[in-house]
Amino acid sequence: MTGEGEVLVVGSAARDVVHDDPRGWRLGGGVTYGGLTLARLGLRPRVLVGVDRLAADAEELDALREAGADVRLVHLDRSPVFENVETPAGRIQTCLEPGDPLSVAALPPEWRSAHAWLLGPVADELPDAWASVPPADAIVAFGWQGILRELPRGGLVMKRPPGPSALLRRSNIVGVSRYDVDAATPLERLWHLLAADSTLLVTEGHLGGMEIRLSGGEPDSRRRYPAVPATAEVDPTGAGDVFLAAYLAAQIHGPLAASGRHGNDLRLAAAAASLNVQGPGLSGVPVLAAVTRRVAAMLHEPGDG
């Protein structure tokens, strides 16, 4: 179990253009979804978040603080801005601004000893230098989707083929959506880019997903998990980030996954992600009590073993 300040979340906040917010945008990005998830699950994370001038005063950052996160802002000239359009064929995303890199120099020295790290890039803003910062014995989770996109300023976001990355090789847990890579990409190609003894989490939306644990660079175990139905899907943004953060929380904060049943860490993560899509933006990130109720309901469903 980790204590206060022992979980560190790093990344830049993104502003997502919307028409139902007076500001014309909502704050997003893996760092905000991941940090708020950890905080609402009862941990007290430290969150290093890159922001532009508008994002620096966002009410979502106050929600992070109110949930118990210690938030440190890194002021950037430009941070990522996206416009998302949901269609029956999937999301069409335009990159209005890719943003600036988030330098390792921005990390407070006293935060470097964290025992658990969540690296949550949204626009490939974390240079490879971040891979050498966590202590050797720290557990590192990485949101892969944040480096799997080509981001032309003012153009459509396109998939970037997965390739070698120092961040991937340092990470103990890597989360990726099957929809962030080409459908023809075999899973074997993905896990061979990871550390030899790590865990790959592959989410597939309403199809659920899979946990692949590697030993010596090859799968040692595979666990599939079913999707948890949401009562209503309002906004799918951030579901993968919430899943990864909740899974990390279960690994480092044992009571969150304790039920005496195999696979409850995946249930916890799937339940949290399903709750997240029921609200717009960060308002959907669930509190611990709501996740606990949904997990309990899952465990009582017929045929759940």
Give your account of this protein's structure:
Helices cover about 20% and strands about 25% of the residues. The chain has helices at about 30-40, 60-65, 165-170, 185-190, 240-250, 265-275, 290-300; strands at about 5-10, 15, 25-30, 45-50, 70-75, 80-85, 90-95, 115-120, 140-145, 150, 155, 160, 175, 200-205, 210-215, 220-225. β15 and β16 (about 220-225) form a beta hairpin. α1 packs parallel to α2, α5 runs antiparallel to α6 and α6 (about 265-275) packs across α7. The longest helix is centred in the C-terminal third of the chain and has 14 residues, at about 240-250. The model has no long low-confidence stretch (mean pLDDT about 90).
Would you kindly provide a brief summary of this structure?
The chain is of the alpha/beta class and 305 residues long. The protein has seven helices and 16 strands.
Q: How is the secondary structure organized here?
A:
Blueprint: E1 7-12, E2 14-17, E3 25-28, H1 30-40, E4 46-51, H2 59-66, E5 70-75, E6 81-87, E7 90-97, E8 116-119, E9 139-143, E10 149-150, E11 155-156, E12 158-159, H3 166-170, E13 173-177, H4 187-191, E14 199-203, E15 209-215, E16 218-225, H5 239-252, H6 264-276, H7 288-299
Parallel strand pairs: 1-4, 1-8, 2-6, 4-5, 8-9, 9-13, 13-14
Antiparallel strand pairs: 2-3, 6-7, 7-11, 10-12, 14-15, 15-16
Helix pairs in contact: 1-2, 1-5, 5-6, 6-7
User: What is the tally of helical segments?
Assistant: 7
Mean pLDDT: 92
CATH superfamily: Ribokinase
What would you call the shape? Answer: globular
Could you give the order of the helices and strands? Answer: EEEHEHEEEEEEEEHEHEEEHHH
Q: Mind summarizing the main beta sheet?
A: 9 strands, mixed
Distance between the termini: 26 Å
Spatial order of the strands forming the largest sheet: 5-4-1-8-9-13-14-15-16
Any low-confidence stretches, pLDDT <50, length ≥5? none
Helix content: 10-25%
Task: Please give the CATH class.
Answer: Alpha Beta
CATH topology heading = UDP-N-acetylmuramoyl-L-alanine:D-glutamate ligase
**Beta fraction:** 25-35%
Count of distinct structural domains: 1
How many beta strands in the DSSP annotation?
Answer: 16
Instruction: Please name the CATH architecture.
Output: 3-Layer(aba) Sandwich
C-alpha Rg, in Å? 18 Å
